[in-house]
Structures are given as structure tokens and as C-alpha cells.
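2024-03-11 09:14:02 DEBUG pipeline.ingest accepted 1 chain
2024-03-11 09:14:02 DEBUG pipeline.ingest length=339
2024-03-11 09:14:03 DEBUG pipeline.predict start
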Amino acid sequence: MHPGLVLGILIPELSLPGKHEVDQQNSNDINQNNLDGIPEFGNAFGPVHGVKLKYLLQLLTSPLYFCSKACKLHKLLETQIMTKGTTFHAFIPIRFEPGNTSVMISQLLFGEEFTLREKSGNWLSISLDFDGTEGWVAKEFVELRELENEKKMGLSGPVCLASLPSSTILDLTMGQQRIIPAGAVWNSERNNSMLWYGHNFELLSSEGFIKPGANTNPREVGKRIVSLPHIPGGRSGFGFDGPGLVQLICRMMGKNIPRYCQQQAELGSTINFMTEVKEGDLAFFDNEESEIIHVGIILDDGNILHSGTSVSIDLLDHHGIYSNEQKKYTHKLRVIKRI
């Protein structure tokens, strides 16, 4: 763009000379004598006293000037406002499309945060910060806040995760108790108290809250949630689907993995022999069309924790899962992965 066009925007009251006229004037020729008779000049930049017009144009059309302005404009464009959100409810459904009749593909749990993508009436399109799941949530059940993208978004990961089917916390701001499920996030390093989206929360008991890490025992966690129902799209203490359960256990072990079993099956290295498996390996199962449809996490002593008809601990061998309750094989083994 010709510099004169930019100046024409910034200084609309001027009739600017052509570029060849500016180029003919050398700034070294400017002195106080040939400033005589030139009126004081002011505009959007503020008053400029005793500066000759052509010298001003030389300054404004110089490469250094436009470089500095471009840098400031670039920084302004980079500083965008980002809308984040959470929920104070135990969980809310993340749906495939806006509307209560749309299928639940996942859940937003207490303490988790998302990024707002777009709005459609009373529904928000979101991307869950933890695993990138995209879907729709009802606006009435979430809390929003706006942040500049240069500011720190908060803690890099959950401080603690709830592992009991349900726990009770106190919302001091509202003066009421809230129930939160296994998988809920406690984003505070101050033990039993947390300030989250303008509300003060307090744990009535820290029992069952786990700090994520490699020392987490998947069997001990699994025993706390055995018998919870299988719920498609579930990933909380009110019910799990297969990949939702495995994702939570891995998260408690300090490993963040995707939401769906097809994505999870693409991770890690393949274990070829049952004699080489270790606790924490993931076992994937397919159907007659060779599609991955189920996943579980391997425990010690040839057992597997998974969510079939409910969360259960069953036997695993090279054929697949043998259900202790149904007395038969229920899932055909496809591959074992170590993440």
C-alpha cells in the first residue's frame, strides 16, 4: 500500500503530495530558517509545533516509522480475547449437536475447563481443554469468563482428581453443598479450599482425592468404582463407557490420552505376547468387521478393568475378556498397547 494512503486515513484534512515530491526533499536541508512562516500543525497524533509539512511527511513515510507501526498492529491483532468456561454441576452432557435430544458424546465434569468455539441460541459449541473433545453444552449450566490469550490460563493440569463414586463439597459463595463424581477436578494447591470462577469451594473431606502420578494403583482405584453402570458417553462416577473409564484411570496415573477407543488404539507400542504384558497396558477389542469397539486397562494377575454392562474386573487371556458374571467370553482381543 502507498504510504500516502495510510497518511490519508490518519490525517484526512491534508492534501498530500506525490511520492516523487517527498523524495526530492532531503531532511538534511531542513533548518530553522525554512520553518519560518509554517503554521503549527495538529491532528490525530496530537499537536506538532514548528515542523515543516514535507519533513513530517518524510518522517511518516520512512521505513522505520512503518515498521514500528506494523509491529504495534501485529501485537494488537495477537492480543485476542478468549472465552473460557466451566461448570459448577457434577457433570453436564456434551452433545453431538445443539439440543437435548442429541446424543451425549462425552461429559464436562466439575472443575474442568473448556474453550468457547461458537454460540447458537441457548447452546455453546466448546472444545474441552483436557482432551480436545468438541461438542455442544447448554448455556444455562456453565460459567464463562474472558481472558487475553497472552495471560496464563491457570494451572497446567489438575491438582487432584476425585476417585470415589461421589464426594461432597461446600460452595461457600452460595452457601450450599454440591455432589461431585469420580473424575471431577480439584484445581487448588491449598488443600481443602479452592477459588474457582469467582466461587469459594471447600472440601468436607479429602478422602478419595488423588494427585495424578505414576504411583496411582489402577486396581485400587478400580475397586472403588466397580459395579457403576455402563453409560454411553459417560466418564464420571455416575457411569462410564469403556474409553471414558480407561481415560480416567490413565489420567490418574499421569497419562493424558484421547477420549475415544479408536484414537487410544493409535497410541503407544504393541505388545505381542501375553507373557509380556504389564499392569497399566491397554487391551483393545474388535467386532466381526475388525472395528475397535471396546477397551480396558490391564491389572496384575491376568485381570482387566473395563466397562461392559457395568464397571467390572474380569479375566483376560489371548482370546479376550472372560466375564466372571456371565461365564463366557464377551469381547474378542485385537491388540495390546503400552503407553
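2024-03-11 09:14:41 DEBUG pipeline.report DSSP finds seven helices and 25 strands in the chain.
2024-03-11 09:14:41 DEBUG pipeline.predict end
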